[in-house]
Protein: LysR family transcriptional regulator
Amino acid sequence: MSKSLGLPKPLSRASGDRVDWNLLRTFHAIAQELSISRAAARLNLSQPAVSQALKRLEEQLGTALIERKGPRFQLTAAGIEAQRLANDVKSHFLQLDAALEATSEQVVGNVRLLSINGVSCEAYDRALARLHRECPGLALEITVLPNDEILSALEQRSQPFGLAISRADYPWLAQQRMTREHYRFYCGPEHPLFGQPGITVDRLAQEPVISFTSDLLGGTLNSLAEFRHRHGWNGPVIGCSANSQEVLRLVLAGFGIGCLPHPVYEQAQHLLWPLPPEEVGTVDISLMWNKEQRLTRVEARFLQALQEACQQAQG
Structure:
């Protein structure tokens, strides 16, 4: 490693050979999450184990990889470079898995999928059922994350697939639309407008709102923000979450009105009162992957099954 990373002295080749790649993998999760606790949850490890792994890796490399600032921390220059190298190493291991799998006749292995929460899609469900019947050796690991974190992981090629909202066409991104969600505003039984007929759009202009964290102009739920801006809704945002179930929780608690996708309304329709207009906006949910990622045989089979199910559903 170069002196520009702030190392006390360059590592010899023998020192580099002694770096434990399991420690580097743990650091990769820490660097992505910027949190020991979230990295521990992601890796199914205890927080002390993750902290100890970080300490051992720093000892092996001879430099600090993170700089603590109270309860938060940021990557040092060496940490940023180590994260880049960890991404490369992980990508090479995935390529090795794909090369080795090519010698096998069976479709066996793990598929990792990052997903936003609350996706409702019959084509997706049918594809999973078919995959399980035809490829019983396929194991699926689904991790729920915010939309932006999914796109970041796909860009870095640290995960093969994401099921998320995408409004932009990135040059590295391939996507297959899975379903379209329709959004509408609702209030819960604790809200004074619950059960009232004849409510107009103008009547809601100053109502407190529960929003999604991505419900911003230019965000992934841009259409919801555009609606409020277009109709002059200036009510305060009194709560927000990236998770639709938590937005629902705040709406039911009476914090304010909230815009929810139709599948969430179907789950709790007896507790929600629809507000005008009938449709605020639509959002496409897509299966996404990095065009430059080399897929294993089992990952390619997973992609094929979902694409075929979507093509049949969309006719």
